[in-house]
Amino acid sequence: MKNSEKSSASREARLSEGEMELLRLLCEHGPSPLSQVHRNYGRKIGLTTIQTRLNRMVGKGVVGKSSDYPTLYSALVRLEDASKTYFELIRKICDDSIVPLMSHLTERRKLKPEEIALLKDVIARQEGPGKEGTGKKGGNQ
Question: What CA–CA distance (Å, rounded) separates 37 from 33?
Fold first, then answer.
């Protein structure tokens, strides 16, 4: 497989929820030995399970494995690139509308005030320049 083909295959790899969590940890913490990844995982799960998942991710081309001792695992793709296939699936399920997704997510739990503020800023940026945090519709549309 050529480098460009491998790079493309890596971006399109389907990752499980557990694998996405491991990729997030590697993106946040940088190259890490297995023991550190296991500590950072935050849920009770066996060391060998983490190792199996990491090795599966190496096979998918989304994680690299050094030849050093101790072995360091590192993210080869950005989390945004790896999650792209999930966003495409959600987009199709929601018929290209963000409203059903946001409605579903916000019905599951109460939003924190800082999350509401961040969402308002996202909406303001979509409405137009100079409208951050106002919640008013911009005139440049």
Answer: 6
